[in-house]
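Subject: sequence -> structure tokens, single chain

Hey, anyone have a minute? Need the predicted structure for the following. Not urgent.
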Amino acid sequence: MVESTTTMSKDDIPSLMTAAHQNGYGEAFDVLTLAYEVPVPRQLSSNQILVRVYAASINPIDWKLLNGNLSLIIRPSFPHIPGKDVAGVVVNVGSSVKRLKIGDQVYGNVHNDEGAYAEYVRGKESQFALKPSNLTMIEAAAIPLACETSYQALFIKTSPSVGPKSKVFICGGASATGWFAIQMAKAVGAHVATTCSQGNVSLMEKLGYKIIQEANEMTDDPQQLLVIDYNNKNFGEVLQDQNYDLVYDCVGGEQQWLAARRILKRGGQFITIAGDDPEASISLNTVFTLGPRVLSRKLGSVFGSSHHSYMFHMISTSYSELDHMRTAYFGKGK
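Reply:
Had a minute. Here:
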């Protein structure tokens, strides 16, 4: 499908737009409405750009914000335009913007500013990078938050970063973050295994690797991908003492950490983006218990005999990482 991305002059930018409006907390059908006369955010600070939206994507964090799971720490004023991931065309730039220009096709994550579910979105230049030229707008919009989260977990937070011969286990391979993590880890030559439900094994097969479901079938073949059905098997029992360098948890739940300790090598690393609560609901109880739990595990990593490190990872947006993902992975078809 050919996408029309005709360059728009600043004089052509309308004053009103259509946008999704969140009017409270709850299910999408109850709190989201389509508003047709919303002011276009035309006023830019010096480091901001205005993007005409061609596609936006939905991430788990979006519905968690929508239903109020995170309202204790993030409370937007209503009506509010939600949405983080976006792809589109730059139609205006602030006075200090140098890297991007009007007419550029870009993709990015507007992070806590939100506003992507609209015809136009305003964001910092640092939140956007040039879109991979071999991807459609729809494909590009699905990348920023999930892929950059995993990119940082594998190559920034992990020390040493994942590379050839690294042994990586990914909890939740069928999640967006897990899906990207598998491909990036494989692209740099890592040995990868993952979990998913039996119903999602067909999704794993679409990645093009040689799918195996029994640990005793593993070889040094770089095209192999071990997939463990988490409903029927505990990956900690299946791969006990296999000396994995990294367990990257995209699912959440204490059982992931407990199983990971059984397969990590001495000094191995556990990185989670969900913690013990897969629903990511922030309550007063969470506030009072999360800190002590993380501290306890970090102290255990220092003083315990196995020295397994524990890290709770949250994304920090970076255009340079989006640029690197474009040139090193998507631009090369990896």
